[in-house]
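A favour, since you know our structure tokens better than I do. Would you make up a two-line entry for one protein for me to read? Write everything out right here, beneath this request.
=====
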Amino acid sequence: MNQLLDRDTLQADSIPLDKSEHFTHGFALRTVCSIRAPRSVFFAENLQSLANHFLDAVGSGQTRDMNRLKALYRSWAIPCEGQQVYDPRHRAEWLDKIREAGVRRRTEFFYQQLDAMQALRQEVRRDLLAESRKHDATKLLRQIPCVGPIRAAQLVALIQTPHRFRTKREIWTCLGSRRTTAGNTATSKDS
């Protein structure tokens, strides 16, 4: 494409009409992603939707609820380190540490909200794993060390089809992962 345009045209914001016709008719365009299989084979729309829901709505909601609980205990100068504060088996003893009735009721609401979010997270996780089993790529990705079932499902949802990328560098940029070259580590944004 650059061969068809002179230097002035490349620096300008618009392409002249005679040269743009050449591009729009496909003479200068190269195919980046040519899919010969049905859309459902490559595009994992259900998987993508579940992965987004798992990460954004459910994951951040549960983290928010856990942070609220700890913040409430800390605001009353009650030390609450570790995960024991969330455990339903120890909930009664944690609630006994709060003397004021209004704050105690508010804490009970936070616990109910956390329980509901954990149940929703398990349900979405189960659906995500069931949907990911329909894609052969997840089986291949699971063979990579440190890639479990959730990460493999998220990768399939994010990449969709590797054929839409011209180089592996574009895949790494899409994933936002780090690459290591000659002993130093750089993010894809640095390159």
